[in-house]
Amino acid sequence: MTTWVENPEGGRARGPVAVGRAWAEVLVRPTRFFRTGVAPGDQAPGLVFAVCVAVAFAGSRFLLDPATIPTAFGGPALSAVVSLLFVAVFIAPASLHLTAALQTVLLIVFVRDRAGISETVQVIAYASAPCALAGAPVPALRAACALYGAGLLAVGIREVHGTTTRRAVAATAVPATLVFGYGFRGLDAIATLLAQWYII
């Protein structure tokens, strides 16, 4: 699950510009992106992409809502820097691969002929694209990002593993809830919105 292919055929380009291009493409043309941008064994760009999204989420959250910065490392600035490093080096990679392992088990149940684990890792990584914007303390935005990410995950699994939309949705329901509902705080945002609407 940690294979990095130096020059995979059909894989993503490397570098900051490539990350930005992938982010825009997966948001605007997800079906085409997942059909052409995911290559067997090409996990490096996907992992970098997921780390960038996680750091953007956590960084904007710390910036716009300083109360969320952990206080275990001294002052707010140092705590924010250490926390972002922890997110980039440990939390994002570990979460990505653990989720991919769970998704692979579910795919065994729902999809008979499927692509490899590496492709699943990449799909989950790129499906997180909307959540780069989810750090702002705006429940509607955070909920929209989480729902869009869950939709991208289902689309990616459908395209990369060659299955139906129904099977893709069923296979991604639990991973999407974990990643977008809990990891990116989508469920909290949805609960806040429902409470506001109920009060209104």
Structural description of this entry:
By secondary structure, the protein is mainly α. Helix 3 packs parallel to helix 5, helix 4 packs antiparallel against helix 7 and helix 6 runs antiparallel to helix 7. The longest helix has 35 residues. The termini are far apart. The N terminus is likely disordered. Its main location: membrane.
Roughly what is the average pLDDT, rounded to an integer? 90
- Number of H- or I-type helical stretches: 8
Structural class, by secondary structure, is: mainly alpha
Task: Characterize the largest beta sheet: strand count, sense, and whether it forms a barrel.
Answer: none
What coarse outline follows from CA principal-axis ratios?
globular
Fraction of residues in H or I helices: over 70%
How far the N terminus sits from the C terminus, by CA atoms, comes to 48 Å
Number of strands: 0
Roughly what fraction of the amino acids lie in strands? under 5%
**Helices and strands, in N-to-C order?**
HHHHHHHH
- Total number of distinct structural domains: 1
Gyration radius over CA: 17 Å
List key phrases describing it.
200 residues; mainly alpha; 72% helix
What are the SSEs and their pairings?
Elements: H1 16-28, H2 30-36, H3 43-64, H4 76-110, H5 117-127, H6 139-161, H7 165-183, H8 186-199
Helix pairs in contact: 1-2, 2-6, 3-4, 3-5, 4-5, 4-7, 5-6, 6-7, 6-8
InterPro entries: Yip1_dom
Transmembrane segments: 44-64
Main location: membrane
Summary of the model, kept short:
By secondary structure, the chain is mainly α. It has one domain (16-199).
